[in-house]
Amino acid sequence: MIKAKKSLGQNFLIDDNILKKIVDITDIKDKTVLEVGPGTGNLTSFILKKKPKKFFVVEKDNSLILGLQKKFQDQIEIINDDILNINEKKFSQDKLIVYGNLPYNISTEILCKWIINLNNNNFWFQNLILMFQKEVAERIIANVNTSNYGRLTILAKWKLEIKKICDIKPCSFSPKPKVESSLLFFTPKTKFFKINDPQNIELITRLFFNHRRKMIKKPFNQLFKGNMQIQKKLELNLNLRPQNLDLVTYYSLAKEYEKLRS
Q: Averaged over 19-35, what is the pLDDT?
C-alpha cells in the first residue's frame, strides 16, 4: 500500500467521476500531454484512454516511480525530477496539454514559474488543466475590488484566460485533505499587454500589495519618485488601495517602470 507523503503535499485523486470530467475538458487525441505529479497513476489511466500521441509524466517521489513503470510500461515517458527544476520547452516541439493535481505547498510557485518564463507569444502549452486548493483558485480568478484580488490574480490573468470547471470535495482524495479543491482551465491569450520582463509585474505587485490595506501613494512614490507625469498619464488616484486598481493599471505601471529603467 502506497502512503501519501505529507512533505510533498500528496493527496491522490480517487474519484472516477472527477477523473473522467478532467479528461473530458478538452480533446487530447493525438496530442502531446504532460502530467505533473501522477502519483499512483489514477488520472494517468484516464488520459491514456483518450489516446494521446505522446505522454510525459513528471514525478518527484522516487517511491512511486517503480509502480508507474510496472503499471504503464512504455505507454508513458517518466521523468523522475522536481517540476520546478525542469525546462518544459525541452519535452517536445508540440504544444503540450498539461494536467496537474498540484501539491498544495508549491502550486502557486509552479504556476508563477510557468507564467514568468513565457516568452511573448511563444507558449509551450496549448492548455493547462490544474487543480488547486480552493482558496488559492479563488485568488487566481478573483475580480478587482474583492478581498481575494491580488498579486496572483494580476500575474495569472496577464497572458491567460482562466475558467473554473468545478470544486472538488475532500472525499474525492486519499488521504482526504482538510480543504476543498478547485479545477481550473487555462488557455493562452492571443492578445495581451506587452511587457518586456515579467519580473517587473512581480516587483510592482509585491510592493503595492505588501500593505494591501494602505493607500498606494507610498509604493508609487517609492517606485516612481513622485513622478506626477506618470500619475497623470495613468489617471491614478493615490488614495486608492491596491485591490482597487484594475489589471491594465498594474500592467501599465510595469511598462512605465521599464521605460524609466531603460
A: 98
